[in-house]
Every structure is written in structure tokens, then in C-alpha cells.
Amino acid sequence: MAEFSLPQDSYFLGFDSSTQSLKATVLDSNLNIVASELVHFDSDLPHYKTKDGVYRDPSDSGRIVSPTLMWVEALDLMLQKLHESKFDFSKVAAVSGSGQQHGSVYWKSGSSQILSSLDPKRSLLDQLENAFSIRESPIWMDCSTTAECRAIEKACGGALELARITGSRAYERYTGPQIKKIFDTQPEIYDSTERISLVSSFMASLFAGAYAAIDHTDGAGMNLMDIKEKAWSKVALEATAIGLESKLGDLAPAYAVAGNIAPYFVERYHFNQNCLVVQWSGDNPNSVAGLTLNIPGDLAISLGTSDTVFMITKDPNPGLVGHVFPNPVDVEGYMVMLVYKNGSLTREDVRDRYAEKSWDVFNKFLQQTQPLNGGKLGFYYKEHEILPPLPVGSHRYVIENFSDTLDGLKEREVEEFDPPSEVRALIEGQFLSMRAHAERFGMPSPPKRIIATGGASANHCILSSIASIFGCDVYTVQRPDSASLGAALRAAHGWLCNKKGSFLPISDMYMDKLEKTSLSCKLSVNAGDQELFSKYASIMKKRIEIENRLVQKLGRY
Ligand code: ADP
Ligand code: XUL
């Protein structure tokens, strides 16, 4: 083991190019955080005029994109900020990162030439201004490709068959349906594109100064990769667009090296020329690494722009709900995941409308109201939801004569609750939905424990509701950005695998010393009581009954 230990006095730099910001976390060779930095898109780069990092089509077509160049400029600014804080780039042994999943970048023919000859005297933004055939990247919040999804499913033998091959049925935000839309509606732009990257492989390409491969894990978020073979699926490629394989390039394992860092970064920021660029991956998969999720039965909940729930498994069984991706730090394992679009931005919306725009007031309302909310149930969709597939809108119900048992009780639809009940209905609704769908997806109930991460995991009142609804202890990590932390850890892991010349189990890196590293989790809230857990089970059944009716009436499938 010693011959494969991390070099002393070296750093591992991890990024997270997410919806609202670019974050960086630096680990030292003892896996402790030594630096972190953030570029917030709306406030640090206001000239792009994004709201929450995105542009929403006002016509309600469901089109949601982000300016590709904003991500490039964010990297210029991030490196500038680190430089100004006297960060010593020369100590960085490896760089890796996370990208928001599914988003895509379209490189114009001839751009590989620009990438491989970057001039260290000029910013990246300046040189990449004309490198993209599409200037606005479709991102995970987009839901404008329902027709393309149905066409791809049909061509692949149905939704279930597509899920069996690629890990998911067709989803609007997935890259394959997004590419199909461009291929069908803007063929000349498709033809003028020489490479399509994911956000993750795009950022890796900048650092490597050459097109980086798409990694096996983030590649599973495209509806294009065979998750067992870890190769492009011929049938899915054919169902999507002609001539696609060459535009996608190769796939690679997440632990592989994309190349040495480009001379641009060596000359401009004084990185060491031997610094490795380890393949970037998706933000959720990197959180699996950052949360050291290696025990089946542990559940992770990420409360970022999106809310996600994930677990690891050796034996995935992809179906019509949820997603399966290869585990980025276990070559034989997989992760299963549920994704909610109405996460933090919907909580902010309810906070702004009912709780005086203040998390303190929001939390006071959560504390003032009773668990189960006196039988008041709410469904809040500020964005078209993924799970369940419902359009924008809110629906509120009161269970008549609510008492402890719900058997035979009927609900009545209402217009609005009092403000404290609105807040509780939102929070209980979000986590009851997660519990219900995660149970259907094979989550042990209660799970052994939950590890919470993402911006909203800083909110203790929200974590308390999670502990009551799921009936288990809730842990948190030192900092809520597990995606950039996981990326830094994967940079170290990739460095070691490269040194060894083959895959090394990631737990070998922290086996006996987890508690002494920045990766350790701490207990944040104890499990709620068993009786309340059972009461939540019966109100959850009622909620799913109502949800199924809403899907029948308004749903997209
Ligand atoms: P992403 O990585 O998807 O860009 P983050 O994980 O950084 O998102 O989370 C950002 C979100 O965290 C914000 O939209 C905000 O609503 C939420 N957040 C931050 N602090 C709190 C808090 N105290 N209570 C609830 N939500 C919070
Ligand atoms: C995952 C998903 C989101 C994005 C946002 O499928 O769509 O969680 O990764 O970061």
C-alpha cells in the first residue's frame, strides 16, 4: 500500500461546475481541505443576465439553457481568484471536477485546433469566443424534448427496453433527446459540430487542451450508452442522430487520466507540467465519492438546485422510474438515483411568498407547526417536475376529520393554507415523495442512515423533518459541497490509479483514517420516533394516491 500512497506536500484540486456556480475544493495528501473558492454566476458574472445561472424561455416551451461562455469565464475568474489568494498551483498533483449532469456543449469544426494552442497571455474567454456552434447549452432543467423522448423510446423497443440498455427511460433533460432535437431542427448546426461534450468532459477538455473522453458514469446520463457494456449503444445512437458516434468520441472510466495539464495553465498560473487531469464526472456521481458512500443501505440526499436521492448497489435493475449509473469509484458497482427538479428554487419561492423572504422565518414556521401538518398536503411545482412528470402548478388538499388513522378518510382540494402550514406542506411533501419513490426503488425502510449534502443541508430544521419522515439518523459532511470535494478526492484516486497502472479500490485511500480527514460525516439529527415514522407511512400512501390521480389527469406520460 505504501508504494501507492499520495505524494506528501501535494494538492488535489476539485471543481464543481453546477447550475448556479463554479466551486473549487482543494485537498492535501492527508485528505484535508486546505482551500475552497466560489464563483456565483448571477452575481459574479452579471453581464450574462442569468437568473439562477440559466435562461428560461418565456414562452413556456420548456427550453432552459445556460450560456456556454459563462462557464468558460467562470473558470478564468476562479483561477484568477485562487491566484490572488496566493494559492500555490505548483503543488497540485491532479485536477478533476464535477459537471451538472446531462448539459451539453457543441464545439464548432476546427475548435480542437484552438484548444491545443491556447495563448497563455490571453484569457480562455477571449480565445474560445467563437469555438461553439451553439452558444447556449441545453441543461438538465430543460424539458422541451418530450416528442424526441417518445421517438427514441419507440425506436429502441419501448421505454423499459431503453431503460434496460441505458439505465433510464428517455428523459427530456438527457443528452440524447437534446441532440436529437438539434439534429432534427437545426441540421446545418449539427453538421458544423465536430465534438459534443458533456459539461463534465467540456471542462476537462479545457484543462487538458484537447477533447476529453466522456466518462462511463456521466455518459450514462445521455440515453446513449449501454450501462453493462460501458460502450455506445448502436441502437440508441441510430435512434438519435446520424453520424453521432464520431462526434461523441471515446468513453473512459472515471478514474482514468485525460492527459497532462495543458501548457496554457503551466505558463499562466504556474501549475506543474506533470499535473494530471483526471476525467471529470457528474455532480451526483462525484457526491457518491465525496460522501464516501460505500455501504449498501446508506442513503444520500443532495439538496442543491435539484434534489436528488441516491444509493449504491451491485445489482441494479433499471425500470421506468429513476436512473442507474456506473459507480465512478467502483468499477463493478452502480448507483441508483431519483431526481427532483423542484428542489431549492421551489423552497426559495415558498420562502419568498409565505415566510418574508427569510430562512429564519421559514424555520420558525417549521418549528411552530406540528408533524403531519393537521392533514394538510401540498404539491408545489415551480418547474415542470421530473418525478412525478407534472406541469408547473400547485395543488393543496386537506384530509377531512384528520386523526391518527387515515383509513377511509377523504381529502378536499383548497386554494391556500395559512403561511406556516404552506411551509410545512412544502417540506413534508418534498420528503414524503422522496420516501415513497425511494421505497418503490428498493430503499430499505427505514434506511440505515441518511447523509445529507448540498446548499440546503445547512438548514437544521429541514434535516429534522427528513429524520422524522425517513425514521433514521441524518448525517452531514463538513461542507455542503460534496460534489467538488468528491472531485478533489477523485483527482487523488485517479492519480493513484495512474501510478499503479490499474484500478485501486478508493477506500484504500482513507481506510483507517477516515475520521482524521475532511471526508468524515457527523451525526446531525437523531432519527424521529417510530410511531411518527408509521404515521408518515400512512399519510404517504394518501399522498401517492393523490399524486397518481394528478398524473393521470395532467401528466406527460
Ligand atoms: P448547486 O450546486 O445545484 O448550484 P447548491 O448545492 O450550491 O446548488 O445549493 C444552492 C441552494 O442552497 C440555494 O438555491 C439555496 O436555496 C439553498 N440554501 C442555502 N442555504 C440554505 C438554508 N439555510 N436553508 C435552505 N436552503 C438553503
Ligand atoms: C441529475 C440531474 C441534476 C443535475 C443538476 O440527473 O438532472 O441533479 O445533475 O446538478
CATH superfamily of the largest domain: ATPase, nucleotide binding domain
Shape: globular
Question: Quick one: biggest sheet?
Answer: 7 strands, mixed
DSSP strand count: 26
Q: What's the helix count? A: 20
Overall radius of gyration = 23 Å
What are the segments in which pLDDT stays under 50 over at least 5 consecutive residues? none
Summing up helix and strand content along with how strands pair, one would put the structural category as: alpha+beta
Bound molecules: adenosine-5'-diphosphate, D-xylulose
Query: CATH architecture of the largest domain, please?
Result: 2-Layer Sandwich
CATH class of the largest domain: Alpha Beta
Which percent band covers the strand fraction? 15-25%
Q: What is the CATH topology descriptor of the largest domain?
A: Nucleotidyltransferase, domain 5
Give the total of domains.
2
Q: Into which percent range does the helicity of residues fall?
A: 25-40%
The end-to-end distance, rounded to whole angstroms, is 52 Å
| Average of per-residue pLDDT values | 96
EC number: 2.7.1.17
Enzyme class: transferase
Pfam families: FGGY_C, FGGY_N
GO molecular function: ATP binding; D-xylulokinase activity
